[in-house]
Amino acid sequence: MSENKDQKFVYDFTEGNRDLKDLLGGKGANLAEMTNLGLPVPPGFTITTEACKVYLESGSAPAALRDEVSAHLAALETKMGKKLGQSDDPLLVSVRSGAKFSMPGMMDTVLNIGLSDKSVTGLASQAGNERFAWDSYRRLIQMFGKTVLGVEGELFEDALDEAKAAKKVTVDTDLDAADLKKLVTRFKKIVAKEAGRPFPQDAREQLDLAVEAVFNSWNTDRAKLYRRQERIPSDLGTAVNICSMVFGNLGPDSGTGVAFTRDPASGHAGVYGDYLQNAQGEDVVAGIRNTVPLADLEAIDKASYDQLMTIMTTLETHYKDLCDIEFTIERGQLWMLQTRVGKRTAGAAFRIATQLVDQGLISEAEALQRVTGHQLAQLMFPRFDETAPGKGGPELLGRGIAASPGAAVGKAVFDSYTAVKWSRSGEKVILIRRETNPDDLDGMIASEGILTSRGGKTSHAAVVARGMGKTCVCGAEELDVDTKRRRMTVGDTVIEEGDVVSIDGSTGKVYLGEVPVVPSPVVEYFEGRMHAGADDADELVGAVHRIMAYADRVRRLRVRANADNAEDALRARRFGAQGIGLCRTEHMFLGERREMVERLILADTDKEREEALSALLPLQKKDFIELFEAMDGLPVTVRLLDPPLHEFLPDITELSVRVALAESRKDANENDLRLLQAVHKLHEQNPMLGLRGVRLGLVIPGLFAMQVRAIAEAAAERKNAKGDPRAEIMIPLVGTVQELEIVREEADQVIAEVEAATGTNLKLTIGTMIELPRAALTAAQIAEAAQFFSFGTNDLTQTVWGFSRDDVEASFFTAYLEKGIFGVSPFETIDRDGVGSLVRHAVKQGRATRPDLKLGVCGEHGGDPESVHFFHEVGLDYVSCSPFRIPVARLEAGRAAAEAKGSDSR
After folding, report:
1. Residue 906 pLDDT grade (very low, low, confident, very high; cuts 50, 70, 90)
2. What value, to the nearest 5°, has the Cα angle with vertex 130 and ends 126 and 136?
3. pTM of this prediction?
4. pLDDT tier at 903 (50, 70, 90 boundaries)?
5. Which of 585, 540, 546 is nearest to 562 (CA)?
6. Which position among 52, 323, 474, 858 bears the catalytic label?
7. In the 8-state DSSP scheme, what is residue 786?
8. CA-CA distance, 647 to 691, in Å (whole number)?
9. Among the listed residues 682, 693, 685, 641, the one whose alpha carbon sits nearest the alpha carbon of residue 804
10. Distance (Å, whole) CA 747 – CA 736
11. What interhelical angle do 130-147 and 153-167 show, nearest 10?
């Protein structure tokens, strides 16, 4: 981006507010907001995301940035009464990243900037604590070396472990000042050797290099991977927060912690979080030392605990949401280092949204924006059968902290590389680590769940897993994880890599073997087997019911199901379907009926063809009667036969071998020979673009007429039985209006004959599927012959992109996603710019010709949360998706309607 000479790149914490997240990032905006609220925030300033964008695009910081930083640093020094790196009493600062959207652990932070060989003694003198000063200095060299100078982090960890081993202690706090002084010397040697330069002693150089490192961390592999996973735009950049240091490692009257105003795993009210005495912030998040529950702080430091409780209430009331808070206590003085709207599990999201409505903090409309279809889908996954483990079943290995709920089963793996490799081979895996760090992100994404032996609910593993909706159990201390030998030991039980384990993120239990699963209570609710108001109803079910009821009241889009039989139709209706948007009649030709289709294909004369069609007619009619009965009073869109006929014939290779073997035995089968000839005749190089859809109806006389007659006779029979059938006949793969006109003329004639014969007025409508670019471009003409359009976005995506879905997803889609060509597969979420433009054009042109044109979508995009919002925007009447996704589509249709009225979902 171009640099504006009048542009302001640095803001003091007193100058910003929470509405400036685009400019100051989430962390900077919220630090400013807490400062405005009068909360105890260490003074500091924020370098904007605009400065980061200039740096990333040009390779250097904006020309004005250095002077702006100098001015704000001077003001900070005046306020604090000391200078950065001052030898006798140094001002120290932290340099932290902070993007608009939370990316926990994905970008860089450096603490204790300003310490050097000279200032470390000044810090020791001022603090009256030599050990603290040298501990702070070794932390700076370690973080700076890894983050800024690119030194392998394990080199520092190994040196620290060796120092503890030499002293015969197990925790860092047992190392004294002399030990830490030696460690500093060791760390500086590691930096000089690995980085090819000495650790910088100039405080301003430390600061400038740290700021550049934070800018660069926006484009690290792990940050890019996280953005793709969370669908965060790649052009936002990160802000940099420079904050005066407060110290939690000054002794037992100091410490650091993370707090949540509610339980982020369940949503329940209460005191939740972790606290660690005599520590700095990264110790809690990294999970390297096991924390104590936040409630224990009351006994350790009641004054700070009471103040923190008051601040937590203030923040939740102000933000009207669950808040995630980082704090430090320095010798009894509480300091707030960060707050943000906290990441939460799917169940917590629904519970918290309804709780806040009951508290009068938010409206029902806002509650609807606080949950997503992705979260609802997570709640519909099965959970472990609690009655299964025990005698003869899976063995309970131990229990950790229930950090992110769900039921996950997979093979044990002990590093991210193996997790990704095995996952790509089709294996389900559980990633097991002592603790995770940002470099484990790709392994976490590839895994069914994450298990760690260290850390709490606020550790890296827990926070990232909750954000991704992954099952996670943390802090299972009885598990001895040996990543180098790729095994985990619990007492006498050894779990090797590849052994199957099960983890329950709702209870924290860890099992050896596969635990059976049972349906989730949310699915039981949608199935009608559990009622939200019942005495034994799950609290979560009540929250889901309330939000779904509101979504149904406000949504404009109707939601239909893709269903081909009565059983699926009835389930869809229980799940809230308002009709069938796609009944694929080809699914009615499988099994025993395949032979009848073979006879139709092999027919040489009109008589043979009519006999084959006559045999299929009553079977098709029976199917439709059952479907219309299941969906009585609701529309049912029946798509006439679409796939190429060769799909109903035997495989060409298999049949050729069968015929050749029979001929070698002089036992040739006449029917097999005819079938082989038909297979050869119908064989196509690219069947997706060959003889299928409307082309079948035009080329094979009587085929579509038989199907239309079966639909019409079934509707007439249901009408005579006092039913209310509402059939809609859909002609597939139309590319020009002439095709539709010919098929429609034949269909209208058949319907008229059935109405005359049965004395009924069927009111059947005839429309088409828009799944070819030409159909979308000529929608104005096609609408002259069609009473409705249904967008077949699966095939429309294939034909717009020139992709054969079955081929490309397996061959190069992974590479396209990794290179950022796709943020997400266009078969998963609608391609707004390409496919979406055609849909938008067809809607506009079709309605210009026929204002009452009914419009829907029947591709699987109809159940994708992001796509539902697009279909609402362009004015479709309904979306249609598989039965299991109907609740998700209902919820997102409600969110789209509420969002359109001006509520901000972000």
Report:
1. very low
2. 90
3. 0.82
4. very low
5. 585
6. 858
7. -
8. 11
9. 685
10. 17
11. 150
Cβ-based neighbour number of residue 86 at 10 Å: 18
Give the Cα separation of 648 and 587 in Å (integer): 11
Report H helices in 584-668: 594-602, 606-630, 652-664
- List, as one string, the DSSP characters of 173-193: GG--HHHHHHHHHHHHHHHHH
Cβ atoms of residues 138 and 309 within 8 Å: no
DSSP letter for each residue of 524-554: HHHTTSS-TTSTT--HHHHHHHHHHHHHHHH
Rounded mean pLDDT, 856-860: 90
Q: Decide if 97 contacts 107 (C-beta within 8 A).
A: yes
Give every CB contact of residue 791 below 8 A, 6+ residues apart in sequence. Answer: 769, 770, 771, 839, 842, 855, 856, 857, 858, 859, 876
* Secondary structure (H, E, C), 840-878: HHHHHHHHHHCCCCEEEECCHHHHCHHHHHHHHHHCCCE
Instruction: Give the integer Cα–Cα distance in Å for 489 and 526.
Output: 42
Confidence bin at 149 (pLDDT 50/70/90)? very high
Which amino acid is it at 548? M
User: What are the tokens at 452?
Assistant: 């760690």
Say how far residue 494 (Cα) sits from the centre of its chain: 34
Token pair recorded at residue 493: 């039980």
Give the HSE-up count for residue 737: Cα atoms under 13 Å, Cβ half-sphere: 12
In this prediction, residue 650 carries a pLDDT of 67
Per-residue model confidence (pLDDT) at position 394: 78
Residue 645 has pLDDT above 80, yes or no: no
pLDDT of 758 reads 96
Helix (H, G, I), strand (E, B) or coil at 27: helix
Q: With 60 as the cut, is the pLDDT of residue 902 above it?
A: no
What sign does the CA torsion over 876, 881, 884, 888 have? negative
Confirm whether 460 is a catalytic residue. yes
Q: What is the token pair recorded at 817?
A: 């996603």
Instruction: Give the pLDDT confidence of 711-732 residue by residue, as tens digits.
Output: 999 999 999 999 999 999 999 9
Instruction: List beta partners, residue 269.
Output: 262
Catalytic residue among 52, 72, 323, 460: 460
Q: For 885-899, what is each residue's pLDDT tens digit?
A: 899 999 999 999 998
pLDDT at 904: 36
Which residues are CB-neighbours of 21 under 8 A, at least 6 positions away?
A: 29, 100
474 is catalytic: no
Could you give phi then psi for residue 550, rounded to 5 degrees?
Answer: -70, -40
Nearest to 338 by CA among 272, 259, 270: 259
Cα–Cα distance measured from residue 91 to residue 113, given in angstroms and rounded to the nearest whole number: 9
